[in-house]
Amino acid sequence: MPSSDQINRIVVADPAALAVTAAGRLMTRIEANSDRIAICLTGGSSPKQLYQLLATDAYAKTIPWDRVHWFIGDERFVSASDPLNNMSTARKLFLDHFAPKDHIHPIPTDVATPDESATRYERQLQTFYGAGDLDPARPLFDLVLMGVGPDGHTASLFPGYPALAETKRWVVGVPEAHVEPFVPRVTLTLPALASCREMLFEVAGKEKRAILARLSKDESLPANRARSIGETVFLVDQAAIGK
Ligand code: 6PG
Question: Reduced to 3 states, what is the DSSP secondary structure of residue 238?
Answer without folding.
Answer: helix
